[in-house]
């Protein structure tokens, strides 16, 4: 009987069309992800080359003045993209993966954005994650919504009822064929993705794959539950589509609205203004006050004192430091706001499979907001490291050419995301189980 | 075809629709969605604009508080531009969340516009936002499909269609009547929302319902009405060409998914794929390269500025720049700012052209997909589209240029050319000059500009409107009653 059921299913035009459409969009999404990754890699390469030229050029201009040279020179820090990021681009298109900073105050530099076409951002990335989260559920709905009702409406259900041992088992068989073919198609697409993007086989890739399978299973179970109420095809189609609209659009979008209104981030703007005022207004103040604050922050530089008259880089960089120091409070408040947003969305995501899967994809692919915040923190460390290296040299006016400028190549940050299997899988399993129980209960009564 | 017949059929459809209990349930659900969308839009507008206005004032205060000093210090002190939200952006968020809100304006350097809502997003923004416009554009059509999928097909199924045709009702009357009835139902959902929008605009503490806003608002209303006319006719046509109402429903749902979800995203993604835009690094590198060729005022040996210096010395018949009757370094900076700004603007213009090319695919597809047309028109009238953002960026850049050049002029005019010794008091000019320099204020574009920019989308929508009527009237004879 299985072969007959398979034949009946595969020969349907709608089924073929749905699979073909999904396959095409799936391929497009993989290519888009690959293009994204290539662009990032090209940029990283360009940065490396550019930094070398940029430093050489500026060194040739300002050979006698280390303080002035370091006013101009930029040092790059790169948030290395994982290959898996091609499948779930996440926030990586909005937030830059490269910081290129001078040793001047950092708060005025580190929030600079990438160049983006807002229309593209608004439309969102058509990455493989989108295909899994949005489109596969639609395929599943299209394949299953009339699983039972079709038989009833065509009048074949009575025949089935007489001929099969268990009507429930017959439905499960029909459903399993659809599930199997869906999983196979997904597996093929996933293999293609892994192959085209050349993603190494790591724990992250396996978890990404398993999470996708579990997510698809969620939709099969949900669909099966709706079917088990034995309503008409029209009712099932509408109910399932309504659920999809609710889970994939309304609920996450509603939560997003809520977050944006509940946690606006004026701290970002005050950080921006504060860092400017913190530094610039020092030009009009007594040098002593600035220097005392600077020595308080970095006591190790107390041995360097200002000359009695004229301009000195010690004073200049102390003023720059004040920009960061005085914006610190606002900057921390901003991070706190963002942390609250993270907390709430993760909390809600436990109960909403679409949101959970999206956030987990981004975590696994290291394209999440959290990953970016971590990168910003690493930028702080990177900036301080460079400053503390150069400060004494500037204050002593060390000769520019004594420095090995060629050794200043871009530095890399690698993600240190450790995957918690429980966090990734538990929410979906907890949601799937009761729905499955209810469906089986309903089906047994048929 | 009789007008009376059409109206009768429309009335009958209307009456039947409101006999179904689930319609009221839908009305309640949609209303709740609307209340949420309205509240979020309004609140976001108030909160964000308050924040931005507050900071715009604060930075102005900070600017004016500066004591007497050298004007070039002020050029580096700089200022900020904050992007204001258009009052109608509470109706349609458009790209608001994806565009930066604040930019630091200083001499020598064009900074990026930072702190978009998207940059603080945890990833949920990818699922979209619920705005009044989103509900009107995406959810209401789905509702229309639901109300209208059986409009003709069910009559076919139960045989009443044959009876009607035998009694002398024409296909045209049936199709137009049902479309009109469905259209009426759609407007029942549409008008309350537009009324609420008016109230919100009127009730805000500073009257937002200015003449400009009224014009935009009327533009929005007309566009949506045309859009629903198209949607209703498509619905009735699909229903009339389907054998059963189930077929009709499945087809309409497929159309909704294809036209409202899949196609828009795919189109934009393909536009982005085909017209690759430069990364920031490439963009900056290209500018730097060109600047080195044209003249870099920060390079002490730059040939352009060497030549400028020589010609100045010759013209004024002096042997060193210190003998010039005006401040030489101010003069050099003015020239440098002019060159670097021109180079930057040229590259930025090119970048925007690339973005436009990416967006043009969606504009073109609007002739196939009316949803894309209404989306573009709605955003544009609401001041939350791509061009509105570009306008802001241009205004901010113009202000930055003026600020830098004004400070250079002051330096050229008032600062002595003599180099100071280490014991001299630094040169400075009176702080009244800071107050004289005007504040930045983000201005919105006029209605005429919007219409000319969105011309193609408006035409696309009109083409759909006319063609859908023409199509139904001319093709209805070929329909079958069974």
Largest sheet composition of chain B: 3 strands, antiparallel
Low-confidence stretches of chain A: none
Instruction: Tally the helices of chain B.
Output: 17
Oligomer kind? heterodimer
Helical content class of chain A: over 70%
How many helices of chain A in DSSP terms? Answer: 16
- Indicate the structural class of chain B: mainly alpha
What summary fits the major beta sheet of chain A?
Answer: 3 strands, mixed
End-to-end Cα distance of chain B, whole Å, is 22 Å
Helix content of chain B: 55-70%
Give the low-pLDDT segments of chain B. none
Q: How large is the share of residues in beta strands of chain A?
A: under 5%
| Morphology call of chain A | elongated
Give the SSE order of chain A as H and E letters.
HHHEEHHHHHHHHHHHHEH
* Global outline of chain B: elongated
**Mean pLDDT figure of chain A:** 92
Instruction: Output the helix-strand order of chain B.
Output: HHHEEEHHHHHHHHHHHHHH
Beta strand count of chain A: 3
Strand order across the largest sheet of chain A: 2-1-3
The beta-strand count of chain B equals 3
Q: For the terminal residues of chain A, how far apart are their CA atoms?
A: 20 Å
What does this structure look like?
The complex is a heterodimer of chains A (446) and B (482). Chain A is built from 16 helices and three strands. Chain A has 446 residues and is an all-alpha fold. In chain A, α5 (128-144) runs antiparallel to α10 (233-262) and α14 runs antiparallel to α16. Chain A is elongated, with a radius of gyration of 29 Å. In chain B, strands 1-2-3 form a three-stranded antiparallel β-sheet. Chain B is mostly helical. The mean pLDDT of chain B is 91. In chain B, α1 (3-17) packs across α7. Chains A and B meet through α2, α4, α5, α10 and α11 of A and α2, α3, α4, α9 and α10 of B.
Brief overview:
The complex is a heterodimer of chains A (446) and B (482). Chain A has 446 residues and is an all-alpha fold.
